[in-house]
Amino acid sequence: MLTHPGWMGIGAIAGVLAVVATVIIATLQMTPQSPSGAAGGPSSAASGTVSPPASSNEPSGTDGVPAPSPTDREWTLQPAALFKSGSLHLYTPPSSMGTEKAWDLDLNRAEGVLAAATTDVEAAERALGAQNGAAFAPLAAGRVPTLAECAAIPVAQWLPAIDQDDLKPKAVFCVLTTSGRYGYLRIQKVNLIPKDYLLEERAGTIGDISFSFVLWKKPGD
C-alpha cells in the first residue's frame, strides 16, 4: 500500500511532540513540592522564634483593675498607739470655782474662758460642747472603745454636744478632735449650780464637769 508523503510528515511531528511531553511530565514529578502555607515564608514556629506578647497600658490587678489604695484603710490598719491622755476639770463661767472653760485635747492645754480656734471641748450651762469641727459619739456606759470602733462610727451618729441629761458618771463617748484624732472621754462627775446661787436662772445648770480622756495617734503622727 502506498502512503501519502504529507501524512508521513505529520506522523513524524506527532512523535516528536509525544517525546517532549513525556520529558516535561517526568521533570515535574521529580521537583519537590513546598508544604502548604509555605508561600508566605517559613512559620515562626518552624524557625524557633516566639513573638513577644503585645504590650499593654492597663493597670495591674485582676481584670486590669488596680488594687485599692492603702490610704482608704489607714485608720483600720493604724495601730492603736497612745497620743495623749489626761483628766480635766472644766467650769462654766461666771462660776467662781475656776476659769478653765475650754480645752484643746490635741495639745492637752486649757484655752481659758474664751475658746480658741483649736479648742475641742467646752463646758456650757446645759451641755459639754464640741468646738471647731470636733464631735462626740455615745457608747455603752462604762465600756472602753477601741480605735477601730470609734473610726467606724457613721458620720450621722456624731454629735456637736453632749446634753446635760447624758452627762452621767461612767458615761463614755468617742471623740474626734479638731486635728482629726480619735479618742474617748469618760465622765467622772458633774456638779450642778445650787439653788442659792447668786444668779437664780443658773440654778440646776452645769457648774463644772470632770472627765478623763484618751487620744490615739492618727496616720502621720
Explain the overall architecture.
- The chain has 221 residues and is of the alpha+beta class.
- It has a domain at 74-216.
- The protein contains four helices and ten strands.
- The chain has helices at 5-30, 44-47, 74-77, 147-151; strands spanning 82-91, 102-104, 109-110, 121-123, 127-130, 135-138, 161-163, 172-176, 182-192, 206-216.
- A five-stranded antiparallel β-sheet has the order 1-10-9-8-6. A five-stranded antiparallel β-sheet has the order 3-2-4-5-7, with no helix packed on it.
- The radius of gyration is 47 Å and the shape is globular.
- The chain starts with a helix and ends in a 5-residue tail after the last strand.
In short:
The protein has four helices and ten strands. The protein is an alpha+beta fold and 221 residues long. It has a domain of 143 residues.
